[in-house]
Amino acid sequence: MSDKQVILTQDGLKKLEEELDNLKSVKRREVAERIKVAIGYGDISENSEYEDAKNEQAFIEGRVLTLEKMLRNARIINNDEIDTDTVSIGSTVIVEDLEFGDTMEYTIVGTAESDPLKNKISNESPVGKAILGKQKGTVVEVSVPAGVIQYKIVDIKL
Question: What does pTM read for this prediction?
Fold first, then answer.
C-alpha cells in the first residue's frame, strides 16, 4: 500500500512542523508528568486521572505518527508554482454566487490544511474540485445537497 501524497503550502508545512514539535517537546512531557502524578494516587485500576492521562498519551502518540507520515509524504507548493491565470492549489480565488450575488474568497489548499472557517478549502471539496484548473471569468456549477450553485470566478491571486 502506497502512502498518499500530502499537498501543502509553505504555510501549511510550517504549521504541521510546529504542531509536531510541540507534541514531541511539550505535550509528551506534560502527559508523562500527569501519569506519574496519577500513579502516585495509588490503585490505578480505579484511577480516572490515570485513565485520562493514558488516553491523552495514546492520542498524542497517534497524532505524532500521523504528522510524521504526512510530512514524509509532503509535496510543497511554492508561490512560483502558483499560476494566477488558472486556479491551482495555493491560489486565492474570489468567486461570485450568481444566484445571490455574494462574493467569497477562498484559498485552495490540500486536504491536510483545509480550514473552512478560515476560507481555506480543499482541492478535493466540491467547490475546490469545480474551480481547480479554471480561469478568471469561468462559470462553474457545484452540486450541493440543496441543489446546484453557480459560481463565477471573479479573480485569481497568490
Answer: 0.77
Domain boundaries 6-77, CATH class:
mainly alpha
Alpha-carbon torsion (11, 12, 17, 23), positive or negative: positive
Which DSSP string corresponds to the chain? -PPPPEEEEHHHHHHHHHHHHHIIIIIHHHHHHHHHHHHHTS-GGG-HHHHHHHHHHHHHHHHHHHHHHHHHTEEEEPGGG--SSB--TT-EEEEEETTT--EEEEEEE-GGG-BGGGTEEETTSHHHHHHTT-BTT-EEEEEETTEEEEEEEEEEE-
pLDDT along the chain (158 residues), means of 10: 78 94 97 92 84 95 96 88 86 95 94 93 94 95 91 93
Could you state, in order of their start, the residue ranges of all structural domains in the chain?
A: 6-77, 80-157
